[in-house]
Amino acid sequence: AQRLARPASTTVFERMSALARETGAINLGQGFPDLPEPPELIAAAQAALAERSNQYPPMRGLAELRRAIAAYYAAEQGLAVAEEEIVVTSGATEALASALLALVRPGDEVILIQPCYDAYQPLIERAGGTPRFVNLTPPHWTLDQSALAAAITPATRGVVLNSPNNPVGALLDAATLEAIGALCERRDLWVVSDEVWEGTILDGSAHRSALAVPALRDRTVKVGSAGKIFSLTGWKIGWAIAAPPLAGAVAARHQFLTFTTATPLQWAVAEGLALPSAWHREHRARYAHAKARLVRGLTEAGFAVLPASATWFVTIDLAASGLAADDEAVARTLIETAGVASIPVSAFYAEAAERGYVRLCFAKDDGTLDEAVRRLAAFR
Ligand code: PMP
Ligand code: GLN
């Protein structure tokens, strides 16, 4: 085992899904929807397989897809990005890997804001960098700007942002993003902005991209994922967007990680991105319905559910629910005794600063959610 590079273990999502399969538990752990999949995209993928090329696309992605991504951001977010600034990748995971391998040099420090997605730390370490952690403050998961500034040292080169945040669904507000912009400009830091949950904001807030902050426009790599926008997590079509010099550096890494990603699915995502705003509104409405159903059921059963603006997740505050605040123990008991898989939020911390929350995925049909609530209520 000593010969293996870190990390040599399996992610919490994979472990929880395997455990759910073994025990027959309802899987509200790993974030994937169990709702009708967009028929427009399925039909487009079938047509592309039959009628278009199944050979290598251009290394940076089909021009048609890159144009569709640019048009989508112009229409949905009023964000201007050029085709030349986009690199299509095998999911957001590969966009993150390409960006971090391009930006992090041995000895660099990179700031991570916890709770944060589990891929960032190993990728930074793989590039020879060292993560430095700043914690969001519950229950609203706000960012203390002085804590962020205090984490910067002479070795700091960049910051990874994730708004909307997985696991807690919090957004960085406009003032905070502006302040981060001013700080990054002053200290000459780059930003990797993981915005994969941008299409899942359910409380009416607008998505704010780091690329829309003038001070960050030329120092940011924005990461997106069709898997999240269209609820097709297995498609693994993602992208990185940055000013041309940065985009070139990301593409240089991408070419030796995967080089390209599935051509027919690129065509299908390009067609999907041309769907009107009304389609996205209706798609979100289906998710808002599922979220309201799970939150109502959990609340009626006596669980304290924290507010969340976005993602497919809600979190339960264990102490406020009258439960022992040890999220891993609770998650284990829930899967073994109640038959419901969840994700302990401490898995999103390097040093488990918070142990008082578990995350549940609500992107399921009504029957699944009702049965999960019934099991959780009986468990209490
Ligand atoms: N970043 C975050 C914050 C995520 O939640 C996920 C998916 N769970 C990813 C990146 C990876 O996205 P993809 O499946 O497109 O690789
Ligand atoms: N992003 C999904 C989640 O947070 C799953 C990611 C994964 O399985 N690696 O649950």
UniProtKB/TrEMBL annotation:
<protein>
    <recommendedName>
        <fullName>aspartate transaminase</fullName>
        <ecNumber>2.6.1.1</ecNumber>
    </recommendedName>
</protein>
<dbReference type="GO" id="GO:0004069">
    <property type="term" value="F:L-aspartate:2-oxoglutarate aminotransferase activity"/>
</dbReference>
<dbReference type="InterPro" id="IPR015421">
    <property type="entry name" value="PyrdxlP-dep_Trfase_major"/>
</dbReference>
<dbReference type="GO" id="GO:0030170">
    <property type="term" value="F:pyridoxal phosphate binding"/>
</dbReference>
<keyword id="KW-0663">Pyridoxal phosphate</keyword>
<dbReference type="GO" id="GO:0016212">
    <property type="term" value="F:kynurenine-oxoglutarate transaminase activity"/>
</dbReference>
<dbReference type="InterPro" id="IPR015424">
    <property type="entry name" value="PyrdxlP-dep_Trfase"/>
</dbReference>
<dbReference type="InterPro" id="IPR015422">
    <property type="entry name" value="PyrdxlP-dep_Trfase_small"/>
</dbReference>
<dbReference type="Pfam" id="PF00155">
    <property type="entry name" value="Aminotran_1_2"/>
</dbReference>
<dbReference type="GO" id="GO:0005737">
    <property type="term" value="C:cytoplasm"/>
</dbReference>
<comment type="similarity">
    <text>Belongs to the class-I pyridoxal-phosphate-dependent aminotransferase family.</text>
</comment>
<dbReference type="InterPro" id="IPR004839">
    <property type="entry name" value="Aminotransferase_I/II_large"/>
</dbReference>
<keyword id="KW-0808">Transferase</keyword>
<keyword id="KW-0032">Aminotransferase</keyword>
<comment type="subunit">
    <text>Homodimer.</text>
</comment>
<feature type="domain" description="Aminotransferase class I/classII large">
    <location>
        <begin position="25"/>
        <end position="376"/>
    </location>
</feature>
<dbReference type="InterPro" id="IPR051326">
    <property type="entry name" value="Kynurenine-oxoglutarate_AT"/>
</dbReference>
